[in-house]
Amino acid sequence: MENKVWVFAYGSLIWNNESFQPLDTIKTTLKGAKRSFNKKSIKSRGTKSKPGLALGLELGGECLGAAIQIYEKHLPELKKREGGYLPIETPNKSLEVIDDEGKSLKCLVFFPDSKGKNYLSKDVNIEEKAKIIKEGEEGDNGNARDYLKEIHGFLQEYDIEDENINQLYKLVFG
């Protein structure tokens, strides 16, 4: 029998996960972190000369999302996709993934590497992030503007309120 793992998804992994063949998907809340566009994208959603921004997490607050259950054999592929993000097991002293019934779920959460060269510190304000998104060039998977639009649309579709994303969206698209 193959081992299964839960992975917390807070961005495109929620809807772009077919290659991992999810066995189950449930609504969950990550306690202890919130969404943040805090990682420069120099390949996927931008270039080295004009990076875009990718969605990550930062400590503090909470984040509504989904937990997807996959076979453990898909983890190497997932880790490759999430390059520059560190898999962190929950629950731990800072983070906990809770299902709709209030139960804690053992789950992997991919966090941006705060020591990585493309990580944006908390000191970068939302206006600066909006400027980076607006000025970023096309990467292998498009640009950061379309990525933000996609994430904003998904959150609205699933009735997930995220003030940080809503504010950033207003700054980029007026």
Automatic annotation (TrEMBL):
It comes from the Bacteria. It is an enzyme of class 4 (lyase). Transmembrane segments: none annotated. SUPFAM superfamilies: Gamma-glutamyl cyclotransferase-like (SSF110857). InterPro entries: ChaC (IPR006840), GGCT-like (IPR013024), GGCT-like_sf (IPR036568). Its EC number is 4.3.2.7. Keywords: Lyase. Gene3D superfamilies: Gamma-glutamyl cyclotransferase-like. This is glutathione-specific gamma-glutamylcyclotransferase.
